[in-house]
Amino acid sequence: MLSSKAFADAFYGKSKTILEKEILPQYLPACRWFAGKSREIHELEIFEDILFNGITSVAHILMIRVSYQDGLPERYMLPVSFTPAPDPDYPFAIIAKIKVGGEEGIIYDATYDDSFRAALLSFIISGKSLNGSNGQLIAVYERSSKYNDPSCDYIKSSQVIKTDQSNSSLLYEDKLILKLFRKLDEGINPDIEMVRFIYASFHDESIPFCMGFVEYRQTNHSEPIFIGNLQRYVKNEGDAWSFTIGNITRYYENVLSSESSASDIITKNMLDVRYETIPDILIKLIGIRFIEMVAQLGKTTGELHLTLASHPDFTPEPFSTVYQRSLYQSMQNTTKRHFELLRKSLNLLPDAVKEDALNVLNYEKKVLRLFKSIVDMKLTSTRIRIHGDYHLGQVLCRGNDFVVIDFEGEPLLSLSERRLKRSPLRDVACMIRSFHYASFSALSVFTQLELKTWADLWYFYISGIFISSYMDKVKSAEFMSVERAEIEGLLRIFLLEKAVYELGYELSNRPEWVSVPLKGIVDFLSV
Ligand SMILES: Nc1ncnc2c1ncn2[C@@H]1O[C@H](COP(=O)(O)OP(=O)(O)O)[C@@H](O)[C@H]1O
Ligand SMILES: O=P(O)(O)O[C@H]1O[C@H](CO)[C@@H](O[C@H]2O[C@H](CO)[C@@H](O)[C@H](O)[C@H]2O)[C@H](O)[C@H]1O
Questions:
Q1: Which CATH class is domain 240-525?
Q2: Where do the structural domains in the chain lie, given as residue ranges?
Q3: How far is the CA of 191 from the centre of ligand 1 (A)?
Q4: Can you give the residue ranges of the Maltokinase N-terminal cap domain (predicted)?
Q5: Which of 138, 145, 239, 524 has the largest count of CB atoms under 10 Å?
Q6: Where are the alpha helices (DSSP H) in 346-483?
Q7: Is the CB of 233 under 6 A from ligand 1?
């Protein structure tokens, strides 16, 4: 095993400068969790380096400040380990070849190091702290937990969850899950705050209970930076995204083999959809079980909002002219930023996407006009704490019901923005956007053009069932308006707001997905 002293040399002096100037500026933009992909890096600095002794290896938890040509800097966490021979299964984890203490090998992302993962969990369970050069890493652990033994076998048996995500999640058998936050921000992380609160209210063993967390306290800074969230693992049958993609793929196949005609099927207003109004042919093609599950998801969402609105710490607040103005201001800023990003990325987009991109750019004024309408709306509903980044990937299926996870909020927003109270209809709109994503994503493997009409029908009726079941649950809640015009108006604004958010998110993180929000904006504004 490489000595700690030898490995530590890699983060000092000339080697540190090479990491900062040459290696990390190339490595970070290739990571799924790095949010600054579409920005030009100006400077990169390792501002913290915490030595972390594993059982069979030595790791360093690096904290990195990235400054860009424009805009505010960001901070990231990158734990790193050394190995003489890289694991061929994780080529993306390799950061650089190095020679330290006379030994040749590679530095790699330590989340792929079994020994680091085990040491990290033991550290949390121990509730100890570790000193770095500019601060302290502190572990906080739920003492009453039954997983108190740092020598338990499950600690040694862990893996990195393979999902397309903004953070890194480490799974310890099917008992515990540790989410490591990559992008760092000072202040309370809503993922920890909300999950602790929901568990405390529900007392439901199956809710993702927060068992501990790791925070970093910088010397002379009052606010902590949350690094990791340890939760109890919820046994599940996969997320609602995979479940939905499976359903809609079968639906498209059923459509093609049934030779049904879509021309007689009318769609008017999503808010009027009820089970009885879904045409028989669609019930047959979609399947009753899926429709029932979507209704269950609407109910679960309503229950979540009722819980969040009921806690004294999360007291609902009325809308006000000042808040409505600030909402418009922030939607206007996001629109300008994301449309500018689209303009800059135009030449890099494939031809098939360019037409929608140009259409969207032409709609900028229309988008801003719709957002501006929030300023003068007379709103009778209230604002509550919401999930904030609600989509099908944030819901785990458990047989006949669902568990909601990942209360972290939208990764493009600051932590304080994510903790603001908002209209619960924003979560509803985000889930509807997710149904739109699913209908498009599943369509991409088919070549038959007639399926587009069927995709729209699926999206319309499934979203309608979700809304009606949600409304049934919350209709008498104080936070929900009884005015249909208000519900409709807010939903329209939030649907467009989420699509504009997605435009920026996809251009910065997954450019190959940008066609979906572009199509969403075009379809939404062209009617
Ligand atoms: N409490 C939990 N129980 C079971 N699986 C979980 C739990 N929390 C997260 N997961 C799994 O980890 C994945 C990523 O978690 P998530 O919190 O959504 O991370 P991210 O913020 O990076 O998207 C989820 O899609 C799910 O498969
Ligand atoms: O990583 P998070 O889950 O916190 O959320 C971010 O990434 C999501 C994608 O992984 C992104 O969601 C968008 O794509 C989904 C399909 O992959 C789709 O279901 C969502 O409706 C769509 O918004 C999410 O917006 C982003 O914050």
A1: alpha beta
A2: 4-232, 240-525
A3: 11
A4: 27-113
A5: 239
A6: 351-362, 364-372, 415-418, 425-443, 451-474
A7: yes
